[in-house]
Amino acid sequence: MNLLLLGFLFFIPILLLLRRGRNPSKRVPPGSLGIPIIGQSLGLLRAMRANTAEKWVQERISKYGPISKLSLFGKPTVLIYGQAANKFIFSSGGNAIANQQTQSIKMILGDRTLLELSGEDHSRVRGALVSFLKPESLKRYVGKMDEEVRNHLQMHWQGKQQVKVLPLMKTLTFNIICSLLFGLERGKQRDQYLDSFQEMIEGMWSVPINVPFTRYNRSLRASARIQTMLKETVQKKRIELEQNAASARQDLISCLLGTVDEDGKQVTTEKEIIDNIKLVMVAGHDTSSVLITFIIRLLANEPAIYAAVLQEQEEIAKGKPSGEALTWEDLSKMKYTWRVAMETLRMFPPIFGGFRKAETDIEYDGYLIPKGWQIFWVTAMTHMDSSIFTEPLKFEPSRFENQASVPPYCFIPFGGGARICPGYEFSRLETLVAIHYLVTRFSWKLCSDNFFNRDPMPVPSQGLLIQIWPRRLS
């Protein structure tokens, strides 16, 4: 009886949304909202974990066309597909569509992240983050990133015969985040963050029913622990800045605390700092670790591309005195390696898709998207479109020799337009530094199969188990 009542209460708002303000000359897209609350969520999640999510989406596109309705994570949703859809998502103003994530992401990360903010609030918070993450600011942190990578390899790779790549890359990127973004050195506090952080991200894409022993419930509790730790860290940084015991440029938290407007007022609130630090933790940790892992996987399968990457990295290594850290200038020479990374992102984008919210009734492609509905798009669908990328299943880094030759809004691993990820340059730096030391210090071959699933990011079977052995410069 209680379940029937709960379903009824959730179904009523959906009916109201369907009816409210509908333009009689337009109709909602084809499709079905499915079971109240659940909708098609479990089907999508199952497909992601079975590595058939793209097929699942393609079947909907084949059945209903490039726009269809469904229900995901408790809300009525419209799926849109194609270059025009991507342009609509990333170039529409805040009056039409707004940032909004699934309820699970919103509750776990907070409601003041860049994923939720729009208009002036989005510009204000994004500007504060970019002041730290822009290239001219990141130049000064290359040496620190270099140190974290070398320490990681010495601790976890040197002297080993086999390693699981993905767990180690997650450890590496988390340590880089702690060092550059929080100013946290190695030790107990880092370990406490890592344990709670890993539990927090497990329920990011989940049905938002908060009952014990579910992923969502565990993630909410882990998020609360991280929030408490972040509050303590923010207060400590604030006191250090007030006492001139720290620089506003030493890490991201200090930078956000020290960014003020023309009246001397802090640009971001404490809640905005905490929520967006959690967002940056997720973005900088998971996406980069997945990217580096899949580059290693692809280099093992593509000997010619591996040889070209190795040659480029050895030329850089030969020109440096032994033990000297990489510099910004060194990274700027890694053009082929970054093209390999871009092609990896095309074929295996860490982010499967994303959500927006219709702020008003929207007419799109001959249909009505009702106010309040979610809008869902999938990154990989244009990446693997043969009309955009010839032979999309072929790994071909030369596609990115001339970035202008790629049609706009077709390659979107970092978003696009004004919504492009502010951490793009940070991800590029940590990826290039990591690949440099991996290919110049080790050789490897795969021990496990090539299967992977999404949970919600790509996860290779056995964490990508590889056999490794040391190598020397040619």
Automatic annotation (TrEMBL):
Subcellular location as annotated: Membrane
Any one GO biological process: sterol metabolic process
Signal peptide residue numbers: 1-21
Recorded superkingdom: Eukaryota
Single annotated GO MF: iron ion binding
Entry-linked InterPro entries: Cyt_P450, Cyt_P450_CS, Cyt_P450_E_grp-I, Cyt_P450_sf
CDD domains for this protein: CYP90-like (cd11043)
Name of a matching Pfam family: p450
Keywords for the protein's UniProt record, in alphabetical order: Heme, Iron, Membrane, Metal-binding, Monooxygenase, Oxidoreductase, Signal, Transmembrane, Transmembrane helix
SUPFAM superfamilies the record matches: Cytochrome P450
PROSITE patterns recorded: CYTOCHROME_P450
Cofactor: heme
Positions of heme binding: 421
GO CC, any one term: membrane
Membrane topology listed for this record: Single-pass membrane protein
Family affiliation: Belongs to the cytochrome P450 family.
Protein name: Cytochrome P450
Organism: Vigna angularis var. angularis
Lineage, uppermost ranks: Eukaryota, Viridiplantae, Streptophyta, Embryophyta, Tracheophyta
Gene for this chain: Vigan.03G032800
